Amino acid sequence: VDVEIDLQGHSIAQHPHFNTQQRFYANIEVQNKPYDELSKRTTGIWMWGPSPVVNNIYIHNGILGLSSHHGIHSNGATNVVIEDMQIHSFEVGGVQFNDFDNVTLRNIDIGPSNANVRLNGYYGNARFDLLTLKYLNASKPEHDIIQFADGRNKTLFEIEADLIAAMDIAFRFANDLLTDEDVASPLYATAIQLFSNEANQFLPDGSTLYGVLFNSFLDAVQGFGQQNQYGNNEDVDIQGLVLDNVHIHDLKKAVNEVPVVYMNPCYDDPEVYGSWLYSRENLYDVVRTPLGSVLDLRLMIDDGFHVIDEGVVAQDASMYSEYLRYSGNVLTDAQIGIKLFDVFKSRITTIMEDWATLNTGNDVQSLPECMQFMCNSDIIFQTNKGIIGVRLDEIDAVEIRDVSVSNLYNLSPLASNACGRYSGPTDGGNLWQIDGAGNMNGQIRGISIYGSQVNFDGEVEIRNLVSSYGDVYGVHVMKDSLVTFENDDTLTMTITDLYPENQLDEQQLNTLIALDRTPFPNNFHGQCNILVDEVVSSRDFITVDPPIPNGVDTIECA
Questions:
Q1: φ/ψ of residue 340, rounded to 5
Q2: Which of 19, 142, 186, 523 is at a distance of 20 to 30 A from 109, taking alpha carbons?
Q3: Distance (Å, rounded) from C-alpha 47 to C-alpha 149?
Q4: What is the structure's pLDDT at 51?
C-alpha cells in the first residue's frame, strides 16, 4: 500500500457553509484534480496538466458525509481497496472511478443522498461566473456602462456588486442566517426566486444521481458509452472491479431540465460571419459562459418558464419577436457582461450580446428565428439520465457479489415542451441521450451495464424503485456487454416493487395526449425487471448467460 486512509471510525464532511459555497467537491479525491480530459496513459497536456498514476490505495473504516458532489472520486487510479465505509449526503454520487484498474469495494453502505439542498444549480453557476466577472473587473477597471436592451444601465462593477449581494442573501437563506436587512433588501425577492431550490423540493437538481459509477475514459457526464475506451484503442482496457457486500439505498432527486439554445444555423454566410463560424454552421455550440454554465433563456425573458417550457415558441419561430425580448436579472446581466468584455472564449455568441444590450450598435430586438433549442440537459449541459444505483460503462472483469439497490425515488417533472416532440439526439434531444427514449428526466436504473463484462453472484437484490413520471428498469443491459449469472447454488437475484410513472393519473395522461406531448417527448414505457437492448448492428453484441438468473421467474416489461 502506497497510501492508506484509515478513518478509525471518524468522519469527513463539508461544513454546511462550505457546502453552500463550494459546489464542486469530493470528500476524498484519488488524484491531484477532479477532471482528466487526457487520461493517465496519454502524453498530452490539457488545462490542468497531466495526471500522475495513482497506485495502491487503501481507504477504510469510517464515514464520508455531506458533499456537494461525491463521497469518493477518482481519475486514473490502480489497485484501490475501499472497505468498511458508510457514504451519505452526496448530491452526485457516492463513489465514482474513471480510467482505472483493479478497484474493490467491500462492506460499503451508500445512502441516503442529500435531501436538503437549499440552493439550486443557478447558484453554482453564479459561483463560477463570478470568477470570470472578478477577473474582468480586475484586469480592466475602466469598463464602460452596459446599456441593456430592457432600458437599464449598469457598470460591470455594479453588476458584480449586485450579484454578490444577491448571492450573500441566498447563502444566509440556505444556512438559516437571514437578517432583517436581508428581508428588507431590494434584492431579497430576486435572490430567493433565482437561487432557492424549493421548486425542486430541495433535492439534487443535476442531470444524474448515482450510488456508484465506474467509467472508462473521460468523466461520464453525458450519455451511456460516451467514450469507448481511449477512442476504440483495443490495447487499453479498463478492468478489474469487485463490488462485494455493497448496499445502495435512499437516493432521491428532481432534475431541473434546462432547454439550451444554439445559434449555429444562423452562421450561413462566410462573408458576414467569417470562415470559422461558417464552418460550424451544422454543429451545436450551446450558448454557455467560460466555465460551462448554460445561459437559461427562461431567466432572460418575461414569464420565461411558461413561454419556453409550455412550448409557446417551440413550433413557431416567428413568435420569437413577440416573446423573446431581454429582461435581465443579477445572474443573466453578469453572463451578458462577461460576453461583452470577455477575454476568454466565452461560448456566448455575438448574437446574444447584440440582443441583450445596445452597446454593440447592432439593433437586434429579438433573437433570430434561426436559433434552435435542445432539451434533456441540466444547467451545465449534461445529459439527463435520472437515478442509477450502479453504472458500469466499458469495464471488463466486473464481479458483483451480495449487492443491493433499494429505495430510489425520482421526483423529476414532466418534460419541457421547448423542443416539441423530440425522440432522440437528431430531432431536439440531447446529443448523447438514448435515441428513441424521448425525455429521460424521470428514469431509474437499479444497475446499468454498457460495453462491460459482468458476473453476478451471491444475493443480489433490487427493490422499491419509484419514479413520478419516468420509466424504471431493475437491470438494463446495453450493447457490447457480456453478462453472466452464477448457478442456482450461489446466486439469488430478486427484483421487486418497480413503480414507473407513479404520479401520472388518467386525466393527466389524457391531457398530454390532447396536447400531443406523448408518446414524445414524454415517452412512457413503464418498467422492466431486466431490460436487454435489441442488437441493431452486426458490429454489436449482447450476451446474457443464462438468459434468466435464479430468483427471477421471467423477464418482463409492463
A1: -60, -35
A2: 19
A3: 35
A4: 57
Cα angle 204, 206, 212; round to 5: 80
User: For residue 521, what is its C-alpha cell?
Assistant: 417527448
What does the alpha-carbon distance between residue 536 and residue 540 come to, in Å, rounded to a whole number?
Answer: 7
* Residues 329, 337 contacting (CB under 8 angstroms): no
Measure the CA–CA gap between 318 and 315, rounded to whole angstroms.
9
pLDDT at 272: 63
**pLDDT tens sequence across 245-261:** 999 999 999 999 999 99
Closest CA to 462 of 412, 523, 396, 400: 400
Query: Do 110 and 93 touch, CB atoms closer than 8 A?
Result: no
Residue 549 DSSP label? -
Question: Could you tell me if 332 and 300 are in contact, meaning their C-beta atoms sit under 8 angstroms apart?
Answer: yes
Contact (CB, 8 A) for 356 and 300: yes
**Locate cell 393519473: which residue?**
505
Distance CA 360, CA 354 (A): 6
The set of residues, in sequence order, having a beta carbon less than 8 Å from that of 489 and lying 6+ positions away, is none
CA angle 85, 91, 93 (to 5 degrees): 50
| pLDDT value, residue 315 | 80
Helix (H, G, I), strand (E, B) or coil at 297: helix
Query: Cβ(413)–Cβ(258) under 8 Å?
Result: no
Q: How far apart are CA 246 and CA 389, in angstroms?
A: 11
Residues 6+ apart with CB under 8 A from 163: 126, 129, 130, 133, 330, 331, 333, 334
- Arithmetic mean of pLDDT, 202-224: 92
- Rounded to an integer, what distance in angstroms lies between the CA atom of residue 388 and that of residue 37? 23
Q: Percentage of the chain with pLDDT > 70?
A: 91
Q: What does each C-alpha distance from 460 to 111, 143, 416 come to in angstroms?
A: 17, 62, 36
> Do 480 and 254 meet the contact criterion of CB atoms below 8 Å apart?
no
Return mean pLDDT, the chain: 91
String of DSSP letters for 31-84 = SS-S--SS-TT-----TT-PPPPEEEEEEEEEEE---SSEEEEEESEEEEEEEE
Q: How far apart are CA 90 and CA 68, in angstroms?
A: 6
What's the pLDDT band for 41 if we cut at 50, 70, 90? Answer: very low
> Whats the size of the chain, residue-wise?
558
Helix (H) or strand (E) holding 28: strand 26-30
202, pLDDT greater than 80: yes
Write the CA distances from 337 to 145, 234, 273, 346, integer angstroms. Answer: 10, 46, 22, 11
Best CA proximity match to 462, nearest among 248, 318, 254, 268: 248
Predicted local distance difference test score (pLDDT) of residue 44? 36
For the chain, the helix, strand and coil percentages under 3-state DSSP, each to the nearest 5: 20, 30, 45
Q: Provide the H-helix boundaries in 140-219.
A: 156-174, 180-184, 188-195
Buried b (16+ CB within 10 A) or exposed e, 92-113: bbbbbbbbbbbbbbbbbbbbeb
Tell me the sheet residues that pair with 454: 398, 483
Q: List strands edge to edge, sheet with 70-75.
A: 26-30, 70-75, 93-98, 208-215, 386-393, 444-450, 472-477, 527-532
